[in-house]
Amino acid sequence: MKKLINAPETVVADALRGMAATHPKLAVDAEAGIVLRAGGKVPGKVGILSGGGSGHEPLHAGFVGRGMLDAAVAGPVFTSPVPDRIGQATAAVDAGAGVLHIVKNYTGDILNFGMAAEDADDDGIKVETVVVDDDVAVARGEGAGRRGTGATLFVEKLAGALAETGAPLAEVAALARKVNERSRSFGVALSSCTTPANGAPNFALGPDEIEIGVGIHGEPGRYRGRLTTAAETTGIMLDAVLADLPEAAGDPVIVLVNGLGATPPVELYIVRGEVERVLAARGIQVARSLVGNYVTSLDMAGCTITVCRADEQMTELWDAPVHTPSLRWGA
Amino acid sequence: MKKLINAPETVVADALRGMAATHPKLAVDAEAGIVLRAGGKVPGKVGILSGGGSGHEPLHAGFVGRGMLDAAVAGPVFTSPVPDRIGQATAAVDAGAGVLHIVKNYTGDILNFGMAAEDADDDGIKVETVVVDDDVAVARGEGAGRRGTGATLFVEKLAGALAETGAPLAEVAALARKVNERSRSFGVALSSCTTPANGAPNFALGPDEIEIGVGIHGEPGRYRGRLTTAAETTGIMLDAVLADLPEAAGDPVIVLVNGLGATPPVELYIVRGEVERVLAARGIQVARSLVGNYVTSLDMAGCTITVCRADEQMTELWDAPVHTPSLRWGA
User: Fold this and answer.
1) How many folded domains does chain B comprise?
2) Buried b / exposed e across A278-295, counting CB within 10 Å, b at 16+?
3) Which residues of A touch B54 (CB under 8 A)?
4) I need a surface site. Which of A104, B23, B124, B147 has the fewest CB within 10 A?
5) Could you tell me which residue ranges the DhaK domain spans (chains A, B) (predicted)?
């Protein structure tokens, strides 16, 4: 295992200390794995909270700030945070208007966020939960259901922007669910990730093999294929995504071309160019797009593509100001 | 070679097409390798131009926009752009106040930018050149001199901000040289990069070996060492940087922890945390910092650290608004 780390057991706290040093507008409790906005609660605003296992940086802590999350709760690598920590962060961001939990669809997260939401309810804090399950590589109804991947960023951005306007919890939760329903993702890996605790790759790939339909925790893909061109690989990914995405005539899309951690910007931009070509040929207009490492899987090489069919409200919320370490625009 | 590309010979144009699709505020000529601001020349403003071989994305095209570059010229992978293209971009951004060329210190770039500057002069365009040579892994006076790496971002940001205020060319060039003189960098690699044309790594490293003092084109390091902890590795890098950086009593520093392409955010933030620890112990205050993939070396794993001793003017210019694809803040 070749990683710039100190020890497997201090990876998360060490990284959070680095985030704290870099971003003065975050309030970071590195040992507890809780990241809040430094300014404290925003009176009357719905609190937006997300979290999950670490190893997907900048998701979620890199998205804490005005216009997006109020809190991120970071568990150990690829392991859900415990309910107590989620509860602690929920209480910290409840300003009387309730809290939205944005939860990726994994068994541990569903369980732990569910328990935290119940406890919060006992304490008089209203919690709504949106489960993100956008990965079309998993069939509907299979096992624990579809995994949550790149659409999490869209849900966090758009729900965060709506909450900033003072919208009530029910409305913010409904928007978050709409964003998830209108988003689909698919990923390919050119290499496996290596977790610090295991020290060896989760799976082995031959020199010209890729894993197609891979998860963001080293879950193997739907099948294994040969690495050909970026054009062909992008075609496979978009075929899977678009086949599953309900038509919304005339609605443009927001696209995320997301690096899994070890794929450099030049390759991601090449994929982005192919996305443009494929979608244009299908008459789909890309209204907005984002290219970079946003939802990573430690040191995995490869990428995911997320497509979201955006209505007018969603495009406006996308354009709304956001001031976080890893997503930043507007006044 | 495992890369998301179409063919080695189309890597640069394909990536630039992806950038064009993603960033409507860029005017991209993908075939010529020229990226300008979509809005055209800014009357009376000094034009800020940089460029060089591709493979270091987002440097330089990702830094074109208000508050930073007016033009980036992208050569083939790890190969300087030809003088004609540099000249074409120089003419495109000269608004009567002259143009600053920001050139990383490599033989091909020095030669080609020099010829372009001479030609521009013949055409009545005033050009000043700043050569960036911040890599302390190369001894002063050795071979072609020190390589230009992470400090290029600092020079581009600060000179870009000063030019935006309407400052004259001589003043912008003097600031650019000051930033370079006050900046030092050092890098380590955990793996080599693989150029699309070669298809094989530039050097081979054992499972626990790292290359210390590596360049951003797969140039081997000063020596080879054993990978230990992030703390020890950071210590080695900062020792090299600080031993060479002139004291500037009381001046705080701006720090860049830069990923070389295949190192994920979680590891870069761990290094950032160690930087804070080492500098605090030496009584050096980090005024501002940046963590991410900014000056990459294709798919190399590893990182560089750049430290810049910033006076008050430099910190103010750092904070000035910047609106580019990969660096963005302020109104």
Assistant:
1) 2
2) bbeeeebebbbbbbbbbb
3) 266
4) B124
5) 7-329
